[in-house]
């Protein structure tokens, strides 16, 4: 999971194995780590990563991209440095049952960290200003993370023989696990609060 444009929030925090800002060489090395887990993936992901690394290394483009190695946090992603209140995106929301907002139903405003009190404008394609919401639900989070985010679970997509099969399994099986577990605004179809 790559966080684009997150330097303002996460740039001053520590770099951990969970959340890194490695530059292109570090990201390539991380991809090689993923490639080394399954020989079947080499033709799909690793060849592309190698070509992209050579392209970036030969260019004048110097940038970093943060990424979250969620396989380190699969047992309880809510305790990940990504959701740390000082160096991450803040914690859970506090549910408000009286809030009739259909985008945040079952979730509440993020209470701590750099996004506490942050206002978003859109909900399911409709302008509907509200606070950024989350709802870490233990049974939903546990189900999603234990069955879809561990290294063992990633075999579901790493073993695919074509790019289309790989991408489809990654998107459906693993990519959706975090939004379905964080819920609130992150679980909406127009996250992060964009207009369709």
From TrEMBL:
A single GO molecular-function term is: oxidoreductase activity
Q: Outline the extent of the Tyrosinase copper-binding domain.
A: 62-191
Protein name, entry field: Tyrosinase copper-binding domain-containing protein
């Amino acid at each position: 999971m790559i966080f684009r444009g997150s330097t303002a929030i996460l740039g001053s925090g520590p770099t951990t194995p969970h959340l890194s800002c490695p530059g292109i060489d570090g990201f390539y090395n991380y991809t090689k780590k993923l490639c080394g887990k399954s020989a079947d993936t080499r033709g799909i992901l690793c060849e592309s990563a190698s070509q992209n690394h050579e392209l970036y290394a030969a260019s004048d483009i110097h940038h970093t991209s943060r990424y979250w190695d969620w396989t380190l946090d699969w047992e309880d992603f809510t305790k990940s440095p990504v959701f740390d209140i000082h160096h991450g995106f803040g914690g859970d929301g506090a549910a408000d049952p009286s809030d009739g907002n259909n985008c945040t139903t079952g979730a509440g405003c993020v209470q701590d960290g750099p996004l506490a009190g942050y206002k978003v404008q859109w909900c399911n394609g409709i302008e509907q200003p509200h606070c950024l919401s989350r709802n870490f639900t233990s049974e939903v989070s546990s189900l999603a993370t234990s069955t879809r985010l561990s290294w063992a679970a990633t075999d579901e997509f790493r073993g695919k023989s074509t790019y289309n099969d790989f991408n489809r399994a990654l998107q459906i099986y693993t990519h959706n696990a975090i939004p379905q577990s964080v819920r609130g605004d992150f679980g909406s179809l127009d996250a992060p609060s964009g207009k369709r």
